[in-house]
Amino acid sequence: MSSQDTAIKGSRPVTPPLPSPRSPRSPESLHLPACRHRDRSPSPMRGYLIPSPLPTRRNRTCSATARASEGPVFTGVCKCFSRSKGHGFITPSDGGADIFVHISDIEGEYVPVEGDEVSYKVCSIPPKLEKIQAVEFSQIFVWKS
Questions:
Q1: Which domains does the chain have, with CATH numbers?
Q2: What residues have CB less than 8 Å from 134, skipping those under 6 apart?
Q3: Region (Disordered) spans which residues (predicted)?
Q4: CA 19 to CA 26: how far, in whole Å?
Q5: Which of 10, 60, 64, 77 stands 20 to 30 A from 126 (CA)?
Q6: Mind listing the pLDDT tens digit of every residue in the chain (145 residues)?
């Protein structure tokens, strides 16, 4: 009996794989050509980098909130608020343009509804700081006797 006779019926004989014409023949061929070699040593200028003068997003937000905290408190009426979208608008008591309010700027667990009297401070909205939004937003409780 030959080795082919003992093979499982229907299986192919095992042959070693042929070398690919593209496969490298020696470890030297794995190195990049000299023209593509990069020096991986640390840059001498790396320790002398100057930090960017532009404030980070966190600093910008913090300073804008700090400016808003120092500003006056305004009052208005909730024009509309969408719980699903997480934002709404306030009609200021002085009759100005409606002001945007986001759920993250509302104090506590309160969710405003149309007609609620509210107090708030204002903060400019990036990127151009032309529009404003309400921050430190809370409901004004009216006690009825």
A1: 72-139 (2.40.50.140)
A2: 90, 99, 100, 101, 105, 118, 120, 121, 122, 123
A3: 1-57
A4: 13
A5: 77
A6: 555 555 566 666 666 666 655 555 555 555 555 555 555 555 555 556 666 555 444 444 556 666 667 778 999 999 999 988 989 999 999 888 999 988 888 877 888 889 999 999 888 877 777 888 888 888 887 665 5
